[in-house]
Amino acid sequence: MKSPLLISMLLACAPVALAQTPPPTSTAPSSASSPHQRETTSTPAKEAATPSSPAPAAASSPHQQHVTEGADKAKAHDKMMKDCVAKQQSTNASMSQDAAKKACTAQMKSKPSE
């Protein structure tokens, strides 16, 4: 009685033992990729051109240059506001800083943007 039980258990476990066999040892890249993949990865990457200008901004991407232009415009706007406030206060000594800022803001809005 123990013998048929043992045989049936061995037969039930046989597929599990077979499923755990290691994969083939061939790990060559040519066997794992398509001809197109091999062709694509075998070509060297194209390098970016060296900028002709020694200025650091010449190496910037178009996006970086655009963002930097915005920062430069903001600095210019801040300087114009400070100059305007100083001029307003020198013209009218009793004018407060806040009133001068409001007057300059209104003046900047009325000017056409450059």
Tell me the radius of gyration. Answer: 38 Å
Distance between the termini: 100 Å
Average pLDDT level = 77
Count of DSSP helices? 5
Class from helix and strand fractions: mainly alpha
* Proportion in β-strands: under 5%
**How many β-strand runs?**
0
What string, H for helix and E for strand, traces the elements in order? HHHHH
Which term fits the overall shape? elongated
Helix content: 55-70%
Main sheet specs:
none
What does this protein structure show overall?
This protein has 114 residues and is mainly alpha-helical. The protein has helices at 2-19, 29-32, 35-42, 62-91, 97-110. Helix 4 crosses helix 5.
Brief digest:
This protein is mainly alpha-helical and 114 residues long. It has helices at residues 2-19, 29-32, 35-42, 62-91, 97-110. It has a domain at 60-114.
